[in-house]
């Protein structure tokens, strides 16, 4: 570096105006200040770069956390959707079965009411709406009437009327 400082000597030293050693000191001082300034600038640049890297790392961590929360929420929502879809399938099957049963029962009611109206019975003295009145009970001695009425509940209606309907959900999935 000493050789380079000689090249920075000013031409005024040859004029006799300044001492050549003063000029060399001034150039060396400026060079030293410039080097310190460059080092400080490089240090600030490294600090800015490190801060930027730290900010990006923090942002990565935050986005990863958000991503995990979204995935968890999506998983829970998907499971809930599958559960509701299964319940909906069971309910749809039950509705179809109940609709069919209601339609059959309505047909039976229509048939019984048509038979009752055609036969001329007013329905006052009938047993279970079958067209038999109380006076015929026990008259038929061959057991036909008793066998026919064995499945009839004494409170009116068939023994099987109040049985629950269970939907088969094994084939729904």
From TrEMBL:
Residues 1-54 are annotated as: Disordered. Residues 28-91 form the BZIP domain. PROSITE patterns: BZIP, BZIP_BASIC. Signal peptide: none annotated. CDD domains: bZIP_plant_GBF1. Keywords: DNA-binding, Nucleus, Transcription, Transcription regulation. SUPFAM superfamilies: Leucine zipper domain (SSF57959). Its main location: nucleus. One of its GO terms (molecular function) is transcription cis-regulatory region binding. It is found in: Nucleus. GO terms for biological process: positive regulation of DNA-templated transcription. InterPro entries: bZIP, bZIP_plant_GBF1, bZIP_sf. GO terms for cellular component: nucleus. Residues 1-24 have a biased composition (Low complexity). This is Ocs element-binding factor 1. It comes from Noccaea caerulescens.
